[in-house]
Amino acid sequence: MESKGLQPMDSEQLRENAHKMVDFIADYYKSIENFPVLSQVEPGYLRELLPDSAPNQPETLQNVLDDVQAKILPGVTHWQSPSYFAYYPSNSSVAGFLGEMLSAGINMVGFSWITSPAATELEMIVLDWLGKLLKLPEDFLSTAGQGGGVIQGTASEAVLVVLLAARDRVLRKLGKNALEKLVVYASDQTHSALQKACQIGGIHPENCKLLKTDSSTNYALSPNLLSKAISDDISTGLVPFFLCATVGTTSSTAVDPLLSLGKIAKNNGIWFHVDAAYAGSACICPEYRCYIDGVEEADSFNMNAHKWFLTNFDCSALWVKDRNALIQSLSTNPEFLKNKASQAKMVVDYKDWQIPLGRRFRSLKLWMVLRLYGLENLQCYIRNHINLAKYFEGLVAADSRFEVVTPRVFSLVCFRLLPPNNNEDHGNNLNHDLLDAVNSTGKIFISHTVLSGKYILRFAVGAPLTEERHVTAAWKVLQDEASALLGSL
Amino acid sequence: MESKGLQPMDSEQLRENAHKMVDFIADYYKSIENFPVLSQVEPGYLRELLPDSAPNQPETLQNVLDDVQAKILPGVTHWQSPSYFAYYPSNSSVAGFLGEMLSAGINMVGFSWITSPAATELEMIVLDWLGKLLKLPEDFLSTAGQGGGVIQGTASEAVLVVLLAARDRVLRKLGKNALEKLVVYASDQTHSALQKACQIGGIHPENCKLLKTDSSTNYALSPNLLSKAISDDISTGLVPFFLCATVGTTSSTAVDPLLSLGKIAKNNGIWFHVDAAYAGSACICPEYRCYIDGVEEADSFNMNAHKWFLTNFDCSALWVKDRNALIQSLSTNPEFLKNKASQAKMVVDYKDWQIPLGRRFRSLKLWMVLRLYGLENLQCYIRNHINLAKYFEGLVAADSRFEVVTPRVFSLVCFRLLPPNNNEDHGNNLNHDLLDAVNSTGKIFISHTVLSGKYILRFAVGAPLTEERHVTAAWKVLQDEASALLGSL
Predict the structure, then answer these.
(1) Domain boundaries, given as residue ranges, for chain B
(2) Do the beta carbons of residue A313 and residue B177 sit within 8 Å?
(3) Which residues are annotated with the PTM N6-(pyridoxal phosphate)lysine (chains A, B) (predicted)?
(4) Which of A221, B174, B200, B318 could form a disulfide with A187 if both were Cys (CB 3.0 to 4.6 A apart)?
(5) Domain spanning B109-360: CATH 3.40.1170.60
């Protein structure tokens, strides 16, 4: 850009080049349906296309953009494609993108209030806004007592920080050598992030108890099983301290019964965390709010605005009732960060609510999503995806070669191709092959899971550009590839 | 934006609105010197300016931008201001900003290779590039055996993941109940992130040994002290397992002697981590590379490209020699993420090298910084800041009311106002008051530390817009406020 006397933040260079980048990105979205949804490159493809060291002299932006087009985009799996139905969605939106731009533009590091008061205060306010849209109990809001929300990077970090808060709360009572006795409960459908949090926090692996679920509860955790596990563990001298329930599991959107689980947790002095990373978004609609009934029993609640809420990655909203539990576990107070406002305890310093020290101005994008779209539009957005999932469910049900495996609750349909002649030995390979076949077309991208030993295909509606025609076309791909597979048997 | 039938990712809406945002951000940089560097708002200022719930109906972008101007920017501490000299810098640049835009535009979640092969592969390649610029030993590069680099969010996460890898490596040998015996070593100048990592990982607080430093070593860790501490601990049955050395401490840019520390670590089977979060950037210049001599003894090495290397926050580069140690500690393998490439172990899945599952396409911005600027410009950029710091050091030295407290090594000057009549009782309050006074002017922002009981002012050059005239003006502010303070005594 400049060969002599680098001016790395000249405002006119920024203007000129960023306008170019805007057009590049807008053109990407214009042409996004031309790319294979799942990248079809082979491992190691990029190393052959790029030099093996950084240049000594500057290159032009055009050079770089040409390389993005020719070398990077073929290796991208297009999460924003309207034909992306894998895992869970990771929404981009104009508002979310603008918020990311502004955050990157200001580029401050808001670890303490003083390092940018607006960043901390906007985060508190916007999480109160979102908490109200979700009708969270008031003690999760920052305006009431010791509660409040915080933006974590991911649901993994959210469950980790509350697990640590809960661990240290009990270790302060029992002494640190009690660590080996601490027990965590969740269903076997719980996200692997919980096990990872246990590994990190030093919970003994055999004390991370993932209770079995099956189709009789639609893969929800049974309160009876939980009660029994807790009393068994107490009787052998273990110390139950943490329960993670999920609203909308990753495999099949199972919904754990919060109210009865929460009462068990409370009776046993157990920290109760609710992971609604995916399905939390739906709860801004009155007709879906019932799925988090019982959240008033929880100590912490998490939903990912970066999944299905139009807020670019990363933005995982975590609310707690007792911020001090987080702070006692995660605070540091080095001399070089001391300042009047913090010492006087007049402010929130979010560094003490999270793993990292530094943090981006992520509330901007959530604020912009809420303001530029408004609640009613956001509700329509959710309902539209759920309707599209219902539509897909109907298509599957109408083709006798397939079955819908678990009842659809939100915008995920779990289904599979039935093995010919009810030969279940063949069913898993068949669906594995079908998954491979449809994803290899590049026309759609779906993913899978296993439930009760059966290999299941997951069709998750939720990309911001998805319309009915994309669902129709996806079903056609599935039918065609199924016909080809079944024909070749 | 649309009241009916929300189209949240329409490419033409994106284009139109993002062009407006570019101009808003470019105008911000054009006017950045008009803002107080340190925000002067009072705690709670923003809640009075914003409604207490999200709107039902959409608002216009212009409304939001007006609010950013009127309500948010007054609460921002302007890290990109040319008169920002606090903490350490957090560089923005045109290239870094463009990379952030592109990453937010593509908005993929690259936890596994398959979810966007380009994201994983570009990260490996670009960290090899940067590793070569730093002349890291080959076994840190991804092309050689089991090493490789990974982008973490922050240096806190970097030290945490390697601490966990080291912890679990030793616990696999000794059994998990050995946790209470594990000992970590570092100097008392080490970043508080290490203590936080120990808290998280369940290392007993009394086993996190921060060895005393003083001015006799310019606050570097003494190898003799370390040797003695290790043998004392071994003799009482403890298990030394982790050493963190720092190149460029946060207080005063102290440089721990890597070579001799590393040999002690190796002789004792201790994981040796080098934190060069700030000063690592300088090591791309041949004349500063000597400060990381001995890095060949390290197991892991970290530098923050988001500090002084023009890459927007967050981008913390971590290299390890043994990627399997990370993976064994941090991997999860749930069914819903299984895929051919991962199962065949043909690829790197960065989810297993970090705390979170999801991850942004952060290598794009580092790639763009390296390509759009090139090595020679980047070296000039570093040297220019170091020269400005030398210039400031000279100004301080020429005013007999002040003293430079520790020898300047990189671009940080540690100095203080001498207490009149050598009355040291008064020295700390005096400098505390001077800090408050200069920061309250809004003209500059500096921060402080304490060394050997003395309150010290830190002047860290490193913002991308800083020129000689800003350093001159900053010194004038310091002199004026010092005169006022001394006159009022």
Answers:
(1) 109-360, 371-487
(2) no
(3) 307
(4) A221
(5) no
